[in-house]
Amino acid sequence: MNDEARITDMALRLLGRAFNELDEQEQRVICAIAERAPTSRNAGEIDDEEASFGDRLADRVAAVGGSWGFIIAFGVVLVAWMLLNSSVLARAGLVFDPYPYIFLNLMLSMLAAIQAPVIMMSQNRQAAKDRLSARLDYEINLRAELEIMRLHEKIDRMRIADLVEKVEDLSERLDRNG
């Protein structure tokens, strides 16, 4: 039996459909079983290979912007800005952004306007990575289920062969004693 016929037979036997009727994941699993090749793949590595420069940049910005280090450093900068413009520069008459800190509000608004979409891009990438991981998990689960079915078939065939052998042995004994 050639490889193509074996794969088609395996698809019919295990999934009850012709190979060409299976979706891409099912076809990949059937081929991996037929070739006795591993099915597992690392979703992180696949995603990293396909990531563009912008994707990696969005991930880094989200990682930095969503960290306690950033929040603490940003809080320190805000307090320093307010102290500088309220006390230190006010004594010298050089205040460039006095209370209510209009320029600071503008900078914060611009930062939020830029940071929010970048974080959303990173979240979209994480969702895509999660979907990829779920697809790969499905392939592994399907492979495990199909391999268990194959083992059941093999054990059933062995038991039937054993039973046939015992029936033939009993028939021979009955014929001899008979």
Q: pLDDT below 50 for ≥5 consecutive residues: which ranges?
A: none
Shape: rod-shaped
Question: What does the main sheet amount to?
Answer: none
First CA to last CA: what distance? 44 Å
Class by alpha and beta content: mainly alpha
Number of strands: 0
Helix content: over 70%
Radius of gyration: 33 Å
Q: Return the average pLDDT rounded to an integer.
A: 88
In N-to-C order, the SSE pattern is: HHHHHH
Helix tally equals 6
Q: In what range is the share of β-strand residues?
A: under 5%
What's the gist of this structure?
The chain is mainly alpha-helical. The protein is built from 6 helices and no strands.
How would you describe this structure to a colleague?
The chain has 178 residues and is mainly alpha-helical. The protein is 83% helix and 0% strand. The chain is built from 6 helices and no strands. It has helices at 3-15, 24-35, 43-50, 53-65, 68-92, 102-177. Helix 4 crosses helix 6 (102-177). The protein starts with a helix and ends with a helix.
